[in-house]
Amino acid sequence: MTDLDATDLRLMAALQRDGRMTNAELADKVHLSASACHRRVQRLEKLGVIGGYVAIVNARNIGLSTTVFVEITLSGQADELLDAFERAVRLIPDVLECHLMAGSADYLLKVVARDTEDFARIHRQHLARLPGVAQMQSSFALRTVRSTTALPI
């Protein structure tokens, strides 16, 4: 981890809340000159601490109202099998997240769909065809209680 001071943390916290603010607005919020603010943000980007900027689209408002968490257990743990699975899952646009797990499942996927029928299509066309899958269990989210992309800085 790189050396981050309190000003760097304030910069990151402010950008997590509003990544569209101007450099002048950001500088004002963290009590820096505009040039010093710009240099610090560039440094954080160059170090990879800030990985990018995105618009967070409301899935429900574009018709993707169903979130499904899929636990996948593979038939083995050989590197070739894990690599093949990970390559294949990266190609499924409906999979928002894929995590290699320690515990009862090998992988946990977060999948979005329009509805249960759409998820059945995703399952049939993509998930069921993933290499090395021995077992799959899907859990449908009934309601999202908390969702954030902001890290606790």
Short description:
This protein has helices at residues 6-17, 23-30, 34-47, 79-89, 116-125, and strands at 66-74, 95-100, 107-113, 133-140.
Q: Your description of this structure?
A:
The chain is α+β, with helices and mostly antiparallel strands and 153 residues long. The protein folds into 2 domains: 6-47, Orthogonal Bundle (Arc Repressor Mutant, subunit A), CATH 1.10.10.10; 60-140, Lrp/AsnC effector binding domain/regulation of amino acid metabolism (RAM) domain (Alpha-Beta Plaits, 2-Layer Sandwich). The chain contains 5 helices and 4 strands. A 4-stranded antiparallel sheet has the order 2-3-1-4. Strand 2 (95-100) and strand 3 (107-113) form a beta hairpin. It is elongated, with a radius of gyration of 20 Å. The mean pLDDT is 97.
Topology of helices and strands:
Elements lengths: L5 H12 L5 H8 L3 H14 L18 E9 L4 H11 L5 E6 L6 E7 L2 H10 L7 E8 L13
Antiparallel strand pairs: 1-3, 1-4, 2-3
Protein name: Lrp/AsnC family transcriptional regulator
Organism: Loktanella gaetbuli
Keywords: DNA-binding, Transcription, Transcription regulation
Radius of gyration (CA) equals: 20 Å
> How many domains make up the coordinates?
2
Output the CATH homologous superfamily of the largest domain: Lrp/AsnC effector binding domain/regulation of amino acid metabolism (RAM) domain
Mind telling me the CATH class of the largest domain?
A: Alpha Beta
The major pleated sheet works out as:
4 strands, antiparallel
Poorly predicted tracts of residues: none
| CATH hierarchy: architecture of the largest domain | 2-Layer Sandwich
Average per-residue pLDDT, rounded, comes to 97
Extended strand count: 4
Structural class: alpha+beta
Determine the fraction of residues in helical runs and give it as a percent range: 25-40%
CATH topology of the largest domain: Alpha-Beta Plaits
InterPro entries: ArsR-like_HTH, AsnC-type_HTH_dom, Dimeric_a/b-barrel, Tscrpt_reg_AsnC-like, Tscrpt_reg_AsnC/Lrp_C, WH-like_DNA-bd_sf, WH_DNA-bd_sf
Keywords: DNA-binding, Transcription, Transcription regulation
Pfam family, one: AsnC_trans_reg
Protein name: Lrp/AsnC family transcriptional regulator
